[in-house]
Amino acid sequence: MAIGKRCSELPTPRSRCLDRHDPLPLPRSPWISSVLGQLPHPAVWVAPPMVVVFPWLAFGHMIPFLELSKRLARRGHAVTFVTTPGNAAKLLGAAAAPPHLRVATLALPEVDGLPGGAEATADVPPEKVGLLKKAFDGLAAPFADLVAESCAGDGDGDAGFSRKPDFIIHDFAHNWLWPIAEEHQISCAVYLIMPAALLAFFGSKEKNEAHPRSTVEDYMVPPPWIDFPTTISHRRHEAKAIAAAFRPNDAGVSDIDRFWEMQERPSCRLILQRSCPELEPRVFPLLTDMFAMPFVASGLLLPDEVAAVDEDDDKVDVVRWLDKQPRRSVVYVALGSEAPVMASHVRELAVGLELSGARFLWALRRPAGEDAGDVLPDGFEARVAGRGVVATGWVPQVRVLGHGAVGAFVTHCGWGSTVESLFRFGLPLVMLPFVANQGLIARAMAARGVGVEVPREDDDEGMFRGEDVAAAVRKVMEEEEGREMARKAMELKEVLGDRGKQEQYVDELANQPEQRRTDIEQHQLITTEHQHHIS
């Protein structure tokens, strides 16, 4: 099958941080040692570990998968990051990547009803994501060709990437990948980029069969297999979306069935989680027991240090505006790239920001089918001029969150945004969750006292009011309770934002493929030596 120009090694200027290829000599987790420590001594091999990384087609997934890929590459692994051509261009552009990272692009097949050029969930309305999954399933054959081609190589060509992968790290949606891995005797790990609490709420297939959930109300309370006090539950509008994950979509299979199949596949050796035991101490052992499989933390993948601003770059006008504002006086507002934000949400949020009287910087994403300017109340930008900025173009979010003028974050509670704002920079949150794990995150952060969730109607739509947004913003920015939230947020940042500790999780993970030459290889070596001795 012709795949086209599939692979390109990305040139990167070497820097001090990229010269570090050797993993730290950290003690290895007994979980991982029992699962992956089945290899001969590293001295028997001549090439660095080869890892294939393949995320689902959502930027909330692709970005952390790419960040993990970069970290593994910086530690000397040969990493192949697999995605589609359009997503590769958006994710990487002209940016440099570590020397050991290449990108393999696979073209999505056409599917009736899927908009032309759609390659990510951000390109389609929520009701067409099932069609995107159907197209994604069509990548099974070209991915099989890619793996077979690599396995047939001797490692000498293609900058050393033409050889059998030692490990495949993939997302929840790849239920067709395991047979490919098993054909070539390659071990796999599922990488879940959400908090472990969401999987605890989903539960295993066996738990759901023993305790079936058939109504929306069943998804509004903690499941019976969570036997400790918890905030793991959903509002009605969130539960409606969670229940849909248990039903087949346009791809013909449910999201949860895709994931559950891993329990039956011998190639799936462990589950990686973008979290850490310090954050979810009770959930990690619960999941290990429930799925009878090791759960291994990748750490939170904290964003890198904020780079200096290029004053000649017209993309950083918002940062220059922040430079003129008093310290901790600005609320940054961003609801992510994929939350199902409607025009009515934008209008109520605008009302709330205006009523709050707070300084704000709003990264406004145009709702589907709407012009960004048309969804704002008449005269809104004129009335808030001087204290509020609405940015409809690109905003450097990590730099904004790390700016000294920003004192709080109005967020949809996506996991990536929570990691960046709260765990990296210690900002208190004003929380407007929409779908998936966002509600669980909001409840957990409210329970920790580091943010306030905006009230919503208890119905299928879950609408909120501008007055409640204003009250939440004032509470965080002006009231004594908000100052206490800010203090607790900084305390949490000191624990979870420890870059050295978080990178240790990646160090330990990076050790695993390096230990992962198969029993077959060692057996063949021993057998060959034995036969030579006999002869």
From TrEMBL:
Cross-referenced Pfam families: UDPGT (PF00201)
Name this protein carries in UniProt: Glycosyltransferase
Source species, domain of life: Eukaryota
Entry's Gene Ontology molecular function annotations: UDP-glucosyltransferase activity
Organism: Digitaria exilis
Record flagged with keyword DNA repair: no
Alphabetical keyword list: Transferase
Family to which this protein belongs: Belongs to the UDP-glycosyltransferase family.
InterPro entries: UDP-glycosyltransf_plant (IPR050481), UDP_glucos_trans (IPR002213)
